[in-house]
């Protein structure tokens, strides 16, 4: 299953260097949406989810699937159309409204008891609920637990200093049989300040390794002109499957 052929041979550093102290504020993210600095959005969806859909679903139907830091990811519509129940969380109200409008979906808007100022947008069909708040405001009491998680542009987007908080939250949202697909990126962190942030393999082990079996599904060269413009000379995308270790 692993495909490591043709990827540049790099020495992966466990030191994330200057990125450790980098903080992108909520206002900066909202501003990115406002000025349309949303190069991370993939209009056609992400090929990795198509490729590993069977791994995420693992033969199951009618799953609850979580999209942390969802933006307006088109895969949410795709999975909802397959009969799954999708929950996302995103700071930008504009992103969430664009999601519903661009897919011609009607929705309602509700406040969330317990999170001041936050809202949840629910598709009229009832199978997509998108929370407009910080992911750190959520808990399993509010959103329940999930059978599947699609984490692309999420762990790599949160501030490096928040990674433990984020990982603990994600673990608390996993059902026992949850399949968590996680996409990270590797590049020379001295040459680009991020996001996306560099997340080495050692960090995945340290964040999730105590409670999860971690399988690296693939590591592929994803170098593009955009990465060249950032001053990089390689850019790899790494996909992991995390599943909770069985309790003895
Ligand atoms: C790199 S984008 C990825 C979006 C989406 N996962 C995708 O693949 O297109 C990261 C998103 O996270 C949102 N975001 C950043 N910090 C957040 C937080 N603390 N809680 C919820 N959303 C957040 C940003 O507004 C942005 O839309």
Give structural notes.
The protein has nine helices and nine strands. A hairpin with a 4-residue loop joins strand 4 (119-123) and strand 5 (128-132). The two termini are 28 Å apart. With 248 residues, the protein is of the alpha/beta class. It has a single domain (17-244), classed as Rossmann fold (3-Layer(aba) Sandwich), CATH 3.40.50.150. It has helices at 26-34, 47-51, 53-57, 75-81, 93-102, 140-143, 163-172, 201-208, 225-229; strands spanning 64-67, 85-90, 107-111, 119-123, 128-132, 146-151, 174-186, 212-221, 236-244. S-adenosylmethionine binds next to strand 2. Residues 29, 40-41, 69-71, 73, 89-92, 95, 134-136, 152-154, 157 line the site of S-adenosylmethionine.
Number of domains: 1
User: Which ligands accompany this protein?
Assistant: S-adenosylmethionine
Q: What is the multimeric organization of the chains shown? A: single chain
The CATH superfamily name is Vaccinia Virus protein VP39
Largest sheet: 9 strands, mixed
Low-confidence stretches: none
Tally of separate helices: 9
As a percent range, the share of helical residues equals: 25-40%
Mean pLDDT: 93
Strand order of the largest sheet: 3-4-5-2-1-6-7-9-8
Based on DSSP secondary structure assignment, what is the total number of beta strands? 9
The assigned CATH architecture is 3-Layer(aba) Sandwich
Quickly give the structural class.
Answer: alpha/beta
Instruction: Please identify the top-level CATH class.
Output: Alpha Beta
The ordered H/E elements are: HHHEHEHEEEHEHEHEHE
Shape: globular
